[in-house]
């Protein structure tokens, strides 16, 4: 557990384990704590680096500010310098995947391998409208309504139906958080930071071997988004998870861990067959 000073703001991060380093980047509503269920597996042979982006988790908030995801890219660069890491494997999901793409475009020399779950090459009008509706509902300051607007849609219908007891516990845990104006304001800023995201013109600059993972019941970043990434990133592979939604790491945790560690830790990326 540590804090890094970034332009006068505190950025929270954690480093666990030893071995080949992996930086894992949060989805928009996540924090370093969200990865706790995976910590044992990810640190068995690897060094795991987690951080809270600005306005996330235990990092500072940028009250009354507007920014784009470029600030998160600069935070990653500063963190790697802080940790004296010259090259890193990056795993990102959703918002974190978008930031990972922007980082890999800006700093291709710093990225060893790239893993993108449920990620899009740009914020489509569809996704923009969803974000604007989340923000409008957040202004109501009603945690239960915000939960119902944001959480069910990130899971596949089949998973949601089969995990109703777990979902109710999740709802009871999240509603107090979603009722906190500080959290809701931070979520609005994070959501706004992604509205202008469009990496399509730079995807051909990504040089790291890349694994793109899509879920065929992802209704926030549909499978067509990952197919577009695969077509544009020259050294990429595409895996499609059947019957899985946007929160793929929670729906199929064994597959999530296996895909990440298998892709990052395999010794070679090219084979003579």
Automatic annotation (TrEMBL):
InterPro entries with a match to the protein in the record: AB_hydrolase_1 (IPR000073), AB_hydrolase_fold (IPR029058), AB_hydrolase_sf (IPR050266)
KW Methyltransferase (keyword) present: no
Keyword Hydrolase among UniProt keywords: yes
Keywords per UniProt: Hydrolase
One Pfam family in the UniProt entry: Abhydrolase_1
Domain AB hydrolase-1: 21-251
One example GO MF annotation: hydrolase activity
PANTHER family the record matches: MONOACYLGLYCEROL LIPASE
Similarity comment: family membership: Belongs to the lipase/esterase LIP3/BchO family.
Protein name: Alpha/beta hydrolase
């Amino acid at each position: 557990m540590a804090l890094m000073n970034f332009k006068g703001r505190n950025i929270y991060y954690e480093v666990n384990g030893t071995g080949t380093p992996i930086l894992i980047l949060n989805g928009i509503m996540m924090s370093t704590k969200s990865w706790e269920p995976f910590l044992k597996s990810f640190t068995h042979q690897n060094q795991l680096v987690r951080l809270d982006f600005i306005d996330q988790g235990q990092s500072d908030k940028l009250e009354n500010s507007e920014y784009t995801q470029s600030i998160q890219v600069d935070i990653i660069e500063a963190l790697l310098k802080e940790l004296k890491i010259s090259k890193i494997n990056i795993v990102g999901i959703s918002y974190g995947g978008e930031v990972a793409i922007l980082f890999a475009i800006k700093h291709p020399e710093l990225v060893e391998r790239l893993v993108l779950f449920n990620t899009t090459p740009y914020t489509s009008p569809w996704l923009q409208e969803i974000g604007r509706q989340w923000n409008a509902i957040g202004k109501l300051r009603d945690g239960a309504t915000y939960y119902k607007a944001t959480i069910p849609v990130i899971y596949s219908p089949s998973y949601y139906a089969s995990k109703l007891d777990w979902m109710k516990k999740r709802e009871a845990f999240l509603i107090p958080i979603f009722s906190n104006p500080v959290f809701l304001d931070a979520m609005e800023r994070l959501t706004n930071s992604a509205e202008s995201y469009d990496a399509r013109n730079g995807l051909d600059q990504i040089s790291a071997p890349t694994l793109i993972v899509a879920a065929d019941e992802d209704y926030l970043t549909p499978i067509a988004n990952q197919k577009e990434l695969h077509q544009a990133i020259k050294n990429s592979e595409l895996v499609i998870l059947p019957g899985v939604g946007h929160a793929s790491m929670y729906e199929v945790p064994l597959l999530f861990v296996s895909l990440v560690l298998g892709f990052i830790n395999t010794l070679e990326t090219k084979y003579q067959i």
